[in-house]
């Protein structure tokens, strides 16, 4: 099994799951700034030219939520509740909510403070964050209310929904996301950081460059 990744939030979910579940996989870092996502070989795997991508035998999969579900099914983990329709619907609700609402509200904070610093592509632009502030507050309030009395986002246990929702927000202090008014969100995000695989999902340096695609 190969997993192609860059040091960014969508691959972070998949790499954290791989580490958390102890899955054997060859994790191959792509050189984003050197055009590693635009090579013909990688484009053939993922025509979106995004990361992550999973290759497992004849299976080629992109979209981190689908990859996480696939890994859980293969590994027999109920972090994707494959055998319980009601739980599946519950997790699916939060995966969708993330992709439709939460992600776009937190993305500018994450991009301006974390992505730009990681890839050395400039200084944070405050205007980008100001523009999404109303949405951030609206959706943080929704999540905060939902997390009242709940340790995790869905099914009263850790699921892939937690990794989906937390991947851009987990570094909320560094990203200067104003989440201090949402104590349940802070408790949940900081609680996830107690998981070693979530706190440090990145593969060891020695494993990174093997298998690069021309
Ligand atoms: N919805 C996709 C998002 C994939 C995505 O946007 N990946 C980003 C990193 S978080 C990427 O590859 N960016 C590189 C680029 O756009 O050039 C998923 O969940 O896998």
TrEMBL record:
* Organism encoding this protein: Dyella kyungheensis
The chain positions of domain GST C-terminal read 84-214
What name does UniProt use for this protein?
Glutathione S-transferase family protein
The record ties this protein, via Pfam families, to: GST_C, GST_N
Q: Which residues form the GST N-terminal domain?
A: 1-79
Annotated family: Belongs to the GST superfamily.
Q: Which SUPFAM superfamilies match?
A: GST C-terminal domain-like (SSF47616), Thioredoxin-like (SSF52833)
């Amino acid at each position: 099994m190969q997993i192609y990744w860059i040091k960014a939030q969508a691959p972070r979910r998949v790499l954290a799951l791989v580490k958390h579940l102890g899955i054997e996989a060859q994790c191959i870092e792509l050189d984003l700034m050197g055009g590693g996502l635009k090579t013909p070989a990688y484009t053939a795997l993922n025509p979106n030219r995004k990361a992550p991508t999973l290759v497992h035998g004849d299976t080629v999969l992109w979209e981190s939520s689908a990859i996480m579900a696939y890994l859980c099914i293969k590994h027999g983990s109920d972090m994707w509740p494959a055998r319980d329709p009601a739980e599946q619907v519950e997790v699916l609700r939060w995966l969708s909510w993330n992709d439709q609402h939460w992600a776009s509200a937190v993305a500018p904070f994450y991009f301006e403070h974390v992505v730009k610093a990681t890839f050395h592509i400039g200084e944070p632009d405050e205007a980008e964050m100001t523009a999404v502030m109303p949405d951030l507050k609206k959706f943080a309030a929704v999540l905060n209310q939902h997390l009242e009395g709940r340790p995790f986002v869905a099914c009263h246990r850790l699921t892939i929904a937690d990794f989906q929702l937390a991947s851009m927000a987990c570094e909320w202090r560094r990203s200067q996301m104003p989440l201090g008014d949402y104590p349940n969100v802070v408790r949940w995000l900081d609680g996830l950081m107690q998981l070693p695989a979530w706190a440090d999902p990145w593969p060891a340096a020695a494993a990174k460059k093997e298998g690069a695609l021309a």
